[in-house]
């Protein structure tokens, strides 16, 4: 399973690799010369390379959902669910 971590969460790729995942960072790929400056380019790159996109970008998450592309959207709703679960521990 290949994972593509969107630009704003650069560094998660390294943490995921540390856990044994095949993870890449949009930011690092741009540094290597890949043309990934737009949401479309990022989504298309993930699709062409059989990757799961991890993003906080709602538009990218919606685009993935509309096109049946694997994506993990970390939006405010997901963060809120985590907060509620942690509050239950108290």
- Spatial ordering of strands, largest sheet: 2-1-3-4
Classify the beta-strand content into a percent band.
Answer: 15-25%
Query: Class in CATH?
Result: Alpha Beta
Helix percentage range? 40-55%
Low-confidence stretches: none
CATH topology: Rossmann fold
Order of helices and strands: EHEHHEHEH
Taking all Cα atoms into account, the compactness measure Rg is 14 Å
On the 0 to 100 scale, the average pLDDT is: 95
Overall 3D shape: globular
CATH architecture: 3-Layer(aba) Sandwich
* Tally of domains: 1
Biggest sheet architecture: 4 strands, parallel
* Head-to-tail CA distance between termini: 36 Å
- The SS-based structural class is alpha/beta
Count helical runs.
5
How many beta-strand elements?
4
Describe this structure in words.
With 90 residues, this protein is of the alpha/beta class. The chain has a single domain (2-87), classed as Rossmann fold (3-Layer(aba) Sandwich), CATH 3.40.50. Helix content is 49%, strand content 18%. The protein is built from 5 helices and 4 strands. α4 (58-66) links the parallel β3 and β4 (71-73). The chain is globular and about 45 Å long. The model has no long low-confidence stretch (mean pLDDT 95).
Quick structural gist:
This protein is α/β, with parallel strands linked by helices and 90 residues long. It has helices at residues 12-18, 26-31, 39-48, 58-66, 76-87; strands at 2-5, 22-25, 51-55, 71-73. Helices cover 49% and strands 18% of the residues.
């Amino acid at each position: 399973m290949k994972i593509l971590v969107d630009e704003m969460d650069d560094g998660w790729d390294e943490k995921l690799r540390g856990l044994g995942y095949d993870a890449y960072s949009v930011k690092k790929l741009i540094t290597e010369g890949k043309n990934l400056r737009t949401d479309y380019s990022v989504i298309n790159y993930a699709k062409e390379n059989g990757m799961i996109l991890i993003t906080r970008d709602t538009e990218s998450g919606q685009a993935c959902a509309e096109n049946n592309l694997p994506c993990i959207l970390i939006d405010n709703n997901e963060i809120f669910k985590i907060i509620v679960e942690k509050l239950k521990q108290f």
